[in-house]
Amino acid sequence: MSRQKAAGELRSARWFAPDDLRSFGHRSRMMQLGYGEADFHGKPVIGILNTWSELNTCHAHFRERAKDVARGVLQAGGLPVEMPSLSVDESFTKPTSMLYRNMLAMETEEMIRSHPLDGVVLMGGCDKTTPGLVMGAISAGIPMIYLPAGPMLRGNYAGRILGSGSDAWKYWDERRAGNITDQEWIGLQGGIARSAGVCMTMGTASTMTAIADAMGITLPGASSIPAVDANHQRMGADCGRRIVEMVWEDLTPDRIVTEAAVRNAAVVAMATGCSTNAVVHLIAMARRAGIDLTLDDMDALGRTTPLIANVRPSGKDYLMEDFYYAGGLRALMKRIEDRLDLSCMTVTGQTMGENLEGAAVYNDDVIRPLSNPVYREGSLAVLKGNLCPDGAVIKPAACDPRFHLHEGPALVFDSYPEMKKAVDDPDLDVTPDTVMVLRNAGPQGGPGFPEWGMLPIPKALIRQGHRDMLRISDARMSGTSYGACILHVAPESHVGGPLALLRNGDIVRLDLPARRLDMLVDEAELARRRAAWTPPQPRFERGYGWMFLQHVTQADQGCDFDFLQTDFGRPAGEPDI
Ligand code: FES
Ligand code: MG
Q1: Distance between alpha carbon 105 and the CA centroid of its chain, in Å?
Q2: What ligand 1 atom has the least distance to the C-alpha of 90?
Q3: Residue 226: cis peptide before it, omega within 30 degrees of 0
Q4: Which-ligand-closest: CA of 51?
Q5: For the segment 264-297, what is each residue's pLDDT rounded down to a tens digit?
Q6: Least C-beta-crowded within 10 Å: which of 80, 178, 440, 480?
């Protein structure tokens, strides 16, 4: 350990060291907690930002895990302080947890800045908690380690392995087709989520924690360890020990989250099969570090990076538990190391290349060799065209190839309830070529950019045996979803994006190889429709929702608040009294 800092230079010393009335107050309050001066004075104070709650099922193990972190901090000579943080959960939050990602980011940044902390361990994992915590901590700028919650165990019912999300959608379609009994349905319900931890498909949670790992802000390979594995406890204690050293080394996030590290993260995201949500979050995190990652950058990486993690939903066969046993993220990164910048600094104080030394793949069917990828290119593709001038995304690997070049008539819905009603109508006028469209589901329209983008297949088609169709929306979709779904249409319809002008029966054309999405409607007609368009009522007129609508950016910009972006205004700096 290269010790670069003296005790008097600790950030917390500004609270605890001066011989003045204010510091007397701070010291006396630490003593109120039962600490003597030797416990806190001159020691790195480590905030353990814990997004535990009884309604965050994915973080059910975090109360215990925070103790493991604290044990490590104490062993290394620091003082651990656990701080409850906004527990943005995917399981219950309505209309969508995405509405609160930025709230967690704000809370994280402000709680760090305003308290006597020298370093932080960020405990998250359920989808939005990773970007929320990381965005805030990058802006706050003190040493940090991200502790990923880890995936839950494989789901299991009646001899069948079940994957989070993906199998819920799959068996729901079977139930609607009349192929599943009530008893089986209840059995699936009890088997699909059977331990603490995040969704164990390569959904948003596992994609985002892999991104954090690849960016160098977790301990190496930490993102792959199942939540309830004893290795996860030991990893927690390791985080505690390491963050204390990082404080002495003054290893701040700006030295780790560089342009090259963000690019590594994007490449790894593509190689894992990458939830579409990763694009929005990665852009937002990068921008906090002052890096202008664009949708076009993501598309370029998507075209050249093979998908080698055979993990559902993009892969066919396996789940995160299998991925861990096959060597986990370090093994995957080792396999694509010539596509990565191995000189990037990481939280270990060593480079990414050093962290990957000795990593090996133990099962070539789970982590495929480059000569036998799951998909040669394109975990993710970015589309442009007159329906989405600022971009839209699709996951080619998760959709039926017959839709890659497609033309069909639009069937447009203005709201989720309207669409839900229609899809259950057995007489709905729909063919396998129909392009189903949902609008008013973006950052402003949803509101909050909900995961409605895997529009349900109409019952009329399900009964004919169809399980996929081309769908378009300005919504997101769950990372565990699949199908021919075009998402994140920007600008969204609620703010007058061209999706607002589409009408039933208009022909929509997708040309995936050319990355184009267009409506075949002439410009004069579109101009007429544009002139007749009136903006809808804002979704919120008070409170946090109102603030969200005033400041959220569009999907292609990462949906951060404009005023939280790094180039907005003078840096906040340290509190001066
Ligand atoms: Fe928490 Fe999926 S619900 S990660
Ligand atoms: Mg999800």
Answers
A1: 13
A2: 3
A3: no
A4: 1
A5: 999 999 999 888 999 999 999 999 999 999 999 9
A6: 178
Peptide bond into 313 cis (omega under 30): yes
Question: Of all residues in the chain, what percent carry a pLDDT higher than 70?
Answer: 99
For helices 129-140 and 101-114, give the axis angle rounded to 10 degrees. Answer: 30
Taken in order 226, 231, 237, 243, the sign of the CA dihedral is negative
Any ligand 1 atom below 6 A from CB of 193: no
What's the pLDDT tens digit per position in 54-110? Answer: 999 999 999 999 999 999 999 999 999 999 999 999 999 999 999 999 999 999 999
144 Cβ closer than 6 Å to some ligand 1 atom: no
Q: Looking at residue 516, what is its pLDDT?
A: 98
Q: Which pair of structure tokens corresponds to residue 89?
A: 């959960």
Determine whether the shortest distance from the Cβ of 127 to ligand 1 is under 6 A.
Answer: yes
- Quick one: tokens of 445? 């329209």
Q: Which residue has the least CA distance to atom 2 on ligand 1?
A: 199
Q: Rounded to two decimals, what is the model's pTM?
A: 0.96
Q: Are 303 and 377 in contact, with CB atoms under 8 Å apart? A: yes
Pocket test for ligand 1, best of 52, 58, 94, 480 (most atoms within 8 A of CB): 58
In the reported structure, the alpha carbon of residue 438 is separated from the centroid of ligand 1 by a whole-number distance in angstroms of 24
ipTM for the complex shown: 0.92
Residue 282, beta-bridge partner list: none
What strands lie across the sheet with 144-148, from one edge to the other?
A: 79-84, 45-50, 119-124, 144-148
Beta bridge partners of residue 318, listed in sequence order? 311
Write b or e for each residue in 12-32: b if 16 or more Cβ atoms lie within 10 A of its Cβ, otherwise e: bbebbbeeeeeeeebbeebee
pLDDT of amino acid 314? 83
Of 21-35, 204-218, 338-352, 475-489, which gets the smallest average pLDDT?
475-489
pLDDT of residue 373 exceeding 90: yes
* Confidence category of residue 377, pLDDT binned at 50, 70, 90: confident
Instruction: Compute the mean pLDDT over every residue in the chain, rounded to the nearest whole number.
Output: 95
**Measured distance between the N- and C-terminal CA atoms of the chain, rounded to whole angstroms:** 32
375 vs 358: CA distance, rounded Å? 26
Size of the chain in residues: 577
- List the structure tokens of 506: 């208009």
Distances from the Cα of 85 to the Cα of 53, 79, 252, angstroms: 9, 18, 21
User: Does 152 sit in the ligand 1 pocket, CB within 6 Å?
Assistant: no
Minimum-distance ligand to the CA of 204? Answer: 2
Q: CA-to-CA distance for 283 and 281, rounded, in angstroms?
A: 5
| Closest to 480 (Cα-Cα) out of 322, 316, 275 | 275
The four Cα atoms 156, 158, 160, 163 give a dihedral, to 10 degrees, of -30
CA of 130 to the centre of ligand 2 (A): 12
